[in-house]
Amino acid sequence: MNTFFDTRLPLPQVLDQYPAGIPHRRSHVNDFVLVHREVELFNQLLARLGRTRPPLQTDQLATAARSLNDQAPDAAPSPCIQQRLQHARVLEQMLQDADWEPADDVLSEARQVVGYLHESRQLIPDSVPGVGHLDQAIVIDTAWPKLVYEVINFIDYQRLRQLEADRQGRGYADIAFNRQIWMELREIEARLHEHQQRVRESSYAPETPSYFRIH
Q1: Of 68, 162, 171, 194, whose CA is between 20 and 30 Å from 177?
Q2: Euclidean distance between CA atoms 52 and 82, whole angstroms
């Protein structure tokens, strides 16, 4: 997998497994009170994006926020949240690139994720210190198994487009380049790597003789 996604920092485990015993009734994320109807709508979105676990409860969200606050008490977003927001920025670039055509089977989920990131009313306001983006991270994480390989393809498309622009001595946005051209160049590159591998494992030169005989 692309090194950009090799190390996946986990979100709080409580989001995937409700604590055993009698559930608490906490509904505060820091000083913000979760609204039950908004939590229901949020769970509907997660279900559309592929969540198969039971709907999230306000107590799970409150517990997850408390856990993240304990890990990052300086009010900055936790590394696991920052990582997912970074991935989301690449996802947004993918949708905004007029020359890239995302695969049909991921387009709906990608649009829903990016759409939620830009909604004016979200489950947890961005202004909540430290965990204001927790809901966004959950949305990204839910859709990610379906989106990740398409995002990796897009990153590779950006790499090959830049290489081709450099080869032509032009700017990244100044060359004709789309998904079809990327696929063709990727295939050429793969064949070149296979050829180089064969050369490393063998040699065009004949085997060096063990001795010379002079007549």
Answers
A1: 194
A2: 24
Which residues make Cβ contacts (< 8 Å) with residue 73, sequence separation at least 6?
130
Confidence of residue 71 (pLDDT cuts 50, 70, 90): confident
In degrees, rounded to 5, the angle at the alpha carbon of residue 22 between the alpha carbons of residues 20 and 24 is 105
Give dist(CA 133, CA 141) in Å, integer.
Answer: 12
Residue in the structure block whose two tokens are 């913000």: 32
> How much is the pTM?
0.85
Distance CA 198, CA 195 (A): 5
Tens digit of each residue's pLDDT (9 = 90 or more) over 110-147: 999 999 999 988 999 999 988 999 999 999 999 999 99
Determine what percent of the chain falls in helix, strand and coil, rounding each to the nearest 5.
60, 0, 40
- Degrees (nearest 5) of the Cα angle 86, 88, 93? 100
Name the one residue in this structure whose structure tokens are 């590394």. 79
Q: Contact 14/63 with Cβ under 8 angstroms? A: yes
Distance, in Å, from the CA atom of 151 to the CA atom of 102, rounded to the nearest integer, reads 9
Q: How far apart are CA 64 and CA 14, in angstroms?
A: 6
State how far the Cα of 64 lies from the Cα of 8, in Å rounded to an integer. 17
Q: H or E segment at 29?
A: strand 28-29
